[in-house]
Design a protein that fits this description.
168 residues; 6 helices; 20% strand; 5 strands; alpha/beta
Length: 168
């Protein structure tokens, strides 16, 4: 399923001439790896950051440490800061961030295992950049299952965004 979606993403990227950069926490590079396994990814995939550790989020992506203290690493607020950091570093047409609790431990009442927050930045050249965040709860029992579901979710969103926006 991931391979089929990344292939579609590659085709759409060639057609629409956009660039992509990502910051991953709980997926640990699975999104980036899935994309770069496909031939042609170098035409649009600029950069991937794995910022698993909170200090990496702060030092590499310039996430405000007070945001992490107040809302936690798994929050829409942190996902937003992460995606803004990706955009500031790369100026890509599309910027993505992923932060969550893949389990099997580490969940809380507020963020049980399977909670994942996504940040999306859309930079259409004729408009100001648009940011949005999404918080999802995946009801899966395995770490890799949550990670894969997160990647599929992002790929579906990227495909939808590309089909509905112009990047020229």
């Amino acid at each position: 399923m991931i391979k089929k979606k990344t292939s579609k993403l590659i085709r759409l990227s060639k057609k629409n001439n956009f660039t992509l950069s990502v910051a991953e926490s709980c997926t640990g590079g699975l999104l980036s790896s899935s994309i770069i396994q496909e031939s042609g990814a170098s035409n649009f995939f600029h950069m991937g950051f794995i910022t698993y550790y909170n200090k990496a989020k702060i030092n590499i992506l310039s996430v405000n440490s007070n945001i992490i203290k107040k809302y936690g690493a798994v929050s829409e607020e942190t996902a937003l800061e992460m995606v803004k950091g990706v955009y500031k570093k790369t100026k890509s047409d599309l910027s993505i961030s992923i932060t969550g609790v893949a389990g099997p431990r580490g969940g809380t009442k507020i963020n049980p295992v399977g909670t994942v927050c996504f940040g999306i930045g859309i930079n259409c050249k004729d408009k100001p950049i648009i940011y949005k965040t999404i918080k999802k709860k995946f009801n899966l029992r395995t770490r890799i299952g949550i990670q894969r579901k997160s990647v599929v979710f992002v790929l579906d969103n990227l495909i939808e965004i590309i089909l509905t926006h112009k990047f020229d």
